[in-house]
Structures are given as structure tokens and as C-alpha cells.
Design brief:
Elements (H helix, E strand, L loop, with lengths): L1 E5 L2 H12 L6 E7 L13 E7 L21 H79 L7 E7 L2 E7 L3 H5 L4 H18 L2 E6 L2 H12 L1 H10 L2 E2 L5 H14 L4 E6 L5 E6 L7
Parallel strand pairs: 5-6
Antiparallel strand pairs: 1-3, 2-3, 4-5, 7-9, 8-9
Helix pairs in contact: 5-7
């Protein structure tokens, strides 16, 4: 039994086959750890497997029975010899089954011992990985927060609160101040522009998604859309399909998220009209035409 570590599972299989002097098809293996690319090149994990080479079953020898017509062989002797051959064959089958059963029992015991051996290491590695990921996220959040403060310091808006948290590959950004309403703009057009700009910056540089909140603007918009889509939801539940009116900017995205949450088993998507207006449609998966 060999423990093998490699950057990918394929390389681990090849390495194990080389160490055990057998083909990959003859390997019996268990994946201890799947490979991971990590975040921004950090917390990268190699593939780890534990492998053995399959043991071929012992061949069963068939007894040669005498044939009628051989010298000194009677029919009674033939029947007796046939019965002896059947008993011998049955004994060999039973022996092979017992041997395989013992081998399987030993394999199970070895796996239990192996699991208990690696269980402590795996838990330790998982704990260390979570701690490292938390540290990486905290450092990344501070870095983004500092850069965002520098960016907003060059604007004409009075903004005194900039907070950033990074959770599950998403940057949660909160901005507030005396000019928060001006930063949002009429019908949220400045909010949409800032959100688009921040997404392109953070997704390109750090592979992060964003959730921008300016003075609880996003929360109020979510609540407004939640109230608006109530009759839409009732209509879909009654007729099996429906759509929203034309929605602008962030509102169409909020409506999309809430309707997908309300109808996880239906087709929910944003459509664009001839005039460029956007709305959300809801129907069955097998009928995607609005």
C-alpha cells in the first residue's frame, strides 16, 4: 500500500502504478484529498491517493475425468470418479471464496486503520486551510478597503465610512457619509455605474464578485422589489408562467435573484425588448419562449 501525492489525480495514478509496478487499470485506490487551485495561487492542494495493486485470484485447476472406453475403466468407476471430481471442484471453490473473504476482511480492517490514521491529519489540514483562507480573506479585505478609500478621496463626495469584508469569493462593500445619496444618484444611476466599475476592477484583479451597499440603498431596493413581485409570484403560481414589467439597472438583477429563489424549478431569466428595455420572465424549463 502506497500513499502518493501529485499535482493532479492523473499524475497520482501514474505515479502509483509506477511504484507498484502495475498498470493503472490494476490499481485499487482511494482518494484522500482532491486537488485544488486555491485562491490567488494560495492554499493550493495536491491530489493525495492511497493505492494498492489488485491481487489476481488463484486459478482453479480442473480435474481430468477418465473416459468410457479406457482400459480397465467401468461405468461405475466413471460415475464415482465424476462424483469425486465434483467434490474436489466444490472444495476448491469454497477455499477460494474463503480466501477472498479473508482478503476482503483484511482490506476492510486496513481501510479502517488507514482512515483512522489519516483522519487526524485530514482534520488538522482542513483546520489549517480554513485558518489560512480566513487570513487571506482578511488581508484581501483590508487591501481593497485601503484602495477604495484612496479612490473615493479623489472624488467630490463627502464619504467617511468605507468597510469591506470578503466572504466566499464575494467582496461585501459598505459605503456611507453625508453625500451618500448623491453617490447613489437619481434612480440609482451613479450606484449602477460605481457597482459596474468596482466589479470590473475586483473581478479582473482578484477574481471576486461584489455586493455594494451605499447607506442601505441596496436593502431598500430589495424590499421594494420584494413587494413588487408578490403579484407576479401569485400569477406564476396560478398560470405557471409570467413576467415583470421593464426594470432598470440594479432592479432587474434584484428581481432575477428573488424570483429564482421563489421558483428554483422554473426557467427564470432576463430578456431584452426591442426598445432595449429589460424584464424578467418565468416559465417551465421545457418552454423557454415568453
Amino acid at each position: 500500500m502506497k500513499k502518493v501525492e501529485a499535482p493532479t489525480l492523473e499524475e497520482a495514478y501514474e505515479k502509483a502504478a509506477t511504484l507498484l509496478s502495475c498498470s493503472i487499470a490494476d490499481l485499487r485506490y482511494e482518494v484522500v484529498q482532491y486537488p485544488s487551485k486555491g485562491i490567488l495561487g494560495l492554499l493550493k492542494k495536491n491530489a493525495i491517493i492511497v493505492a494498492t495493486c489488485k491481487q489476481p485470484s488463484a486459478p482453479i485447476q480442473e480435474d481430468t475425468l477418465p473416459e468410457i472406453g479406457e482400459a480397465g475403466t467401468t461405468e461405475a468407476e466413471i460415475i464415482e470418479s465424476f462424483g469425486t471430481a465434483k467434490e474436489s471442484f466444490a472444495s476448491e471453490v469454497i477455499a477460494v471464496v474463503k480466501d477472498e473473504s479473508q482478503t476482503l476482511h483484511k482490506s476492510v480492517e486496513n481501510n479502517v486503520v488507514l482512515d483512522s490514521f489519516f483522519d487526524t491529519d485530514n482534520k488538522k489540514e482542513e483546520t489549517e486551510a480554513i485558518e489560512k483562507e480566513s487570513v487571506v480573506y482578511d488581508e484581501l479585505a483590508r487591501l481593497i478597503e485601503d484602495e477604495l478609500k484612496v479612490l473615493l478621496s479623489h472624488s467630490c463626495f463627502a464619504i467617511d465610512v468605507v468597510e469591506v469584508d470578503v466572504i466566499n469569493n464575494t467582496a461585501l462593500i459598505f459605503i456611507d457619509g453625508d453625500d451618500a445619496a448623491l453617490l447613489i444618484g437619481k434612480e440609482g444611476y451613479r450606484y449602477n455605474a460605481l457597482s459596474y466599475m468596482l466589479f470590473n476592477w475586483l473581478h479582473t484583479k482578484y477574481e471576486l464578485f461584489i455586493k455594494l451597499e451605499i447607506a442601505e440603498f441596496l436593502t431598500s431596493q430589495q424590499e421594494m422589489i420584494r413587494n413588487y413581485i408578490k403579484p407576479v409570484i401569485e400569477n406564476v403560481e396560478k398560470n405557471g408562467r409570467g413576467k415583470t414589467r421593464s426594470l432598470d439597472g440594479i432592479l432587474v438583477q434584484i428581481a432575477l435573484e428573488q424570483l429564482r429563489e421563489a421558483f428554483p424549478n422554473k426557467y427564470v431569466a432576463i430578456k431584452t425588448g426591442k426598445a432595449g428595455n429589460k424584464f424578467v420572465i418565468i416559465n417551465d424549463f421545457n418552454n423557454k419562449q415568453s
